[in-house]
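Before going further, learn to read the protein records used in this course. The integers have meaning only within a learned vocabulary of local backbone shapes. To see the layout at work, look at the sequence and tokens printed below.
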Amino acid sequence: MQTTEILKKALSGDINAFQTLFAEFQNQLKSYLYRLLTDRNAVDDLTHDTFIRAFDKLSTFNQDSSFKTWIFSIATNLAYDHLRKLKRWPVDAQDQGATLAIGTPEIAQSFRVVHQTSGAGLYEMKEHIDFCFTCISKTLPIENQVALILKDIYDFQVKEICLILEKTEGVVKHLLNFSRDTMTSIFDHRCALVNKEGICDQCSQLNGIFNPKQNQQEERMKLELLKESKKFNRQELFTLRTKLVQAIDPLHSSGTDLQDIIMRCTRTAIGDVEDFFDRKDKTS
């Protein structure tokens, strides 16, 4: 059945047709929400809430945008309500997370258990670079983070982002420029893959812990990001980083369970989570 026919049936109240349309981009939606929320439980809840709210409001879909853009708009509003209860992340969130893990043997052991027992507990440096991108993006104001991720990671057009954020084209372009400049500046000063004087080499350090037999330098050199860093073109480096991130699904990668538990440690360190071992978050 053609998508237009399915949409027509959905608009007439056919929940099965609606579910078929929703399923076409559900994985991408959940991936997007995870990058915003960094909490699997919240992602599942908000995905469910998005489905319910969208179906309830289906009569308001006037087809000025694609069905996907309309759904992402609803999900973004729900995510915004969730995120505004929390402080934006400090630039050194990952440093705080590392300090907590090093100083808490039980947490460090939980990392090892996931790595050794989970089917998604492998460690790859490129996945941690994706993790890092998410952490740094959470230092931005919410609207900036949303605009950046929608455009640079999920390839939404500016006009679509305007509809999602209810902003003019000029405002969205300003949000994007500010976000890219801010992220680039942070990476310039923090990332040892970009700048040999960068203070953060966490991806390589973790590679040494979880892949002790693997040559770290060889792993680093596999990354186009590192090769291009020799040229040190800030804009090109940021673009390469976003291309790497685009290729990774943080919820379905080979190391998603390991990266998620590292993320939880980071969230605990900065106060997003009350207790690392308590699955109840502040906003639950």
Q: What stands out?
A: The chain has a mean pLDDT of 91. The chain has two domains: 1-85, 89-277. The longest helix spans residues 169-190. DSSP finds 16 helices and no strands in the chain.
